[in-house]
Amino acid sequence: MNRIDECPAARNLPYDVFAKECPSRGTLEHITGRWGALVLGALSEGSLRFNELRRRVAGVSEKMLSQTLHALERDGLVLREAQTTNPPRVDYELTPLGREVAGRLLGLIHFLEGSMDDVLAARRRYDARGGR
């Protein structure tokens, strides 16, 4: 069994994402949800203002982006920096923890992008047999 397959008790970790009430489950949802993953990926490219981030993450509404940023900031993954300029300027960037999470997430994203021909072929086979 490799390290990634070990159960939390074997790793002596105080948290277990598979446990119903574990607080790590909420953070996992924030990171792996559609918008959280895309926001973390976009911010891995560097600091962005709200509207820059909204353009980079095509399809996200202003409300969802705001909610996502608040959740990621609360989890310590995103830093919101408001500057007292006129007009006010707010920049978002990854914290050190956010950079580590984004790096791991980008590995999965790049793997998935490189495997899409296989995924699309599997979808065609599945659909051709009536989805069963």
Would you mind describing this structure in some detail?
With 132 residues, the protein is mostly helical. The chain has a single domain, classed as Winged helix-like DNA-binding domain superfamily/Winged helix DNA-binding domain (Arc Repressor Mutant, subunit A), CATH 1.10.10.10. Helices cover 57% and strands 11% of the residues. A three-stranded antiparallel β-sheet has the order 1-3-2. A hairpin with a 5-residue loop joins strand 2 (78-83) and strand 3. The mean pLDDT is 90. Pfam families: HxlR (PF01638). Residues 22-120 form the HTH hxlR-type domain. Keywords: DNA-binding, Transcription, Transcription regulation.
Predict the CATH topology.
Answer: Arc Repressor Mutant, subunit A
- Please summarize the sheet with the most strands: 3 strands, antiparallel
CATH homologous superfamily designation: Winged helix-like DNA-binding domain superfamily/Winged helix DNA-binding domain
Radius of gyration over alpha carbons?
18 Å
Order of helices and strands: HHHEHHEEHH
Number of strands: 3
Terminal CA distance: 32 Å
Q: What is the beta-strand fraction?
A: 5-15%
Proportion of residues in helical segments: 55-70%
Shape designation: globular
Overall number of structural domains: 1
